[in-house]
Design brief:
five-stranded antiparallel beta sheet; 9 strands; alpha+beta; 296 residues; two-stranded antiparallel ribbon; single chain
């Protein structure tokens, strides 16, 4: 579809268009975005700004807004996305500690009206070792056990889906033993966890913003209930050069900051890297897969 809409004064961000192009359901959702924005603009009495169009924003329409009382906010319309299905409920559960504050939401539209982080600088602008400290502090605050009944899915459900996707891509396997061991761990690790907490699952330095209410706030959680050690993996996966040069030190340092078992962090990280190893070989067939370097 075109990146322009006759109903909006701005183009739809190119990254969002590209992401939605992959699936008919998402293309259909993108076509409904202008009407949803106009509905929410009237219902929540908002003045919309231009959407954020950066590499960090590819799975949602996100824009600054002014609310009826003159206070700033951010409006987010999330595209259909299995991992982010309970973002609204997660923000309600964490209740602005240490996430952005949720002002209003519409589950049917997957719309979120939330606090605007000022100045909003991403944590990625800091050196990685400083990112380690900030993310570890935030994760330890996020890890709470939600009381039953709750809507959140088990982590095992998400990693099983990833395992199924890896198995379906069998033609790309260059090291079946490595990948099979990763898939085995996807099955074993959720069952052997001694603690079950609500996880962010996608907390990395691009999803942490500088703010006024607190030095740093979490955005874009994708909540699942499971092993805290899993939540170390997304940040580490964004530190690939450090992992490649010093895998043991990098894993141990972050696990120590989180006060969790470093071996479980290593196993989860290995499982994730093994599951994506076919893709990694396609990208750089001459390089040793990172999964081998972090393997236990």
């Amino acid at each position: 579809m075109s990146t322009h809409s006759s109903q909006l004064p701005w183009p739809i961000p190119k990254r969002l268009v590209a992401t939605c192009r992959m699936e008919p359901e998402r293309q259909e959702w993108l076509g409904r975005v202008p009407d949803a924005l106009r509905e929410l603009e009237a219902r929540w009495e908002l003045r919309l700004g231009a959407p954020i169009d950066t590499d960090e924003v590819s799975c949602a329409w996100v824009a600054p807004v002014m609310r009826a009382d003159g206070s700033p906010g951010v409006l987010k319309l999330g595209m259909p996305h299995m991992e982010a299905e309970h973002e609204i409920e997660g923000l309600q559960f964490w209740d602005a500690d240490p996430t952005v504050r949720l002002y209003d939401s519409d589950k049917a539209l997957n719309a979120i009206l939330m606090e605007r982080c000022v100045p909003g600088t991403v944590l990625r602008t800091l050196p990685e070792t400083e990112q380690d400290v900030v993310i570890a502090r935030l994760l330890r605050r996020l890890w709470r056990t939600p009381p039953e009944p709750h809507p959140f899915r088990p982590l095992a459900q998400m990693v099983k889906r990833w395992g199924d996707e890896a198995e379906a891509d069998e033609d790309a396997w260059r090291d079946p033993g490595l990948l099979r061991e990763g898939l085995r761990l996807f099955d074993e690790l959720p069952r052997t966890a001694t603690r079950q907490v609500l996880l962010a699952t996608d907390l990395h330095a691009g999803n942490v913003l500088r703010a006024e209410r607190e030095p740093w706030l979490v955005i874009d959680p994708k909540p699942f209930v499971g092993d805290p050690a899993y939540d170390a993996t997304q940040h580490l996966l964004n530190c690939r050069e450090r992992l490649r040069s010093k895998p043991d030190d990098t894993i141990q340092r972050f696990a120590d900051l989180l006060k969790i078992n470093s071996e479980r962090v290593r196993l989860w990280l290995f499982a994730r890297l093994a599951a994506e190893s076919g893709e990694e070989w396609r990208d750089d067939p001459g390089e040793t897969p990172l999964a081998r370097l972090v393997a236990p």
